[in-house]
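Fold in tokens:
===
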Amino acid sequence: MKRRKFIATSSLLGLGAASPVLAHSPKKEKEIYELRSFELKMGGMPRLETYLQNALIPALNRLGVKQVGVFKELGKDEPAKLHLLLVHSSQEKYFQIQQQLKTDTEYLKASEAYHQTLPDKAIYDRISSSLMVAFDGMPTLATPPKEPRILELRTYEGFSEDAVRRKIKMFNEGEIAIFSKVKLNIVFFGEVLIGHRLPCLTYMLTFKDMEERNANWAKFSADPDWKQLSQALEYANTVSRIERIFLEPTSYSQI
């Protein structure tokens, strides 16, 4: 009986009216996210940013990608990494745009210098990419305010597909609401469909600074709803490894 009562309480947490992110209609189509990371060569950053600002981002916006986030890692020396977050309205739109870029004359002209880079002038070592679908509990991205801020990108790996499924369920049925309550300001949640170190999920939070970030995570750890939710047997052993990266948006980032 106690177990049945707890599950009902957890479900109510996930539907709490206090959570602004849960104001989305549950029937709304879930967005598709691509997180693309460039491992840059020494000195490659200026040439990559020229390509992004003058060719790729304008083309993506023109073809229907509403927002492109561009982020640099905090406290990292050269050679650096640059991270792109592309927001697609649907799976169909994602695949459509991949094809359109191959024949878009305006984009091809603007990106000539980038695509004609010679081997001894390579901009990056590798590009890694992951493709995600938004969670039911947060089907669309929440755009942060245009002000100085930091972002925390977290990836949770699970020991099995079922472990990640259960962790996503935990977020949808309670944890997202608790995040909102303690001001772990959510940008997006994504189930990783294709990418590195599967099975896993990835999400992004934003804060005005590291001090706010640390204070709000402390509130989360002490929250009674979180303590209750985290003790449910259903959600035991869902996360085997956590990777986190701290980022800051570039001046031209749309997220």
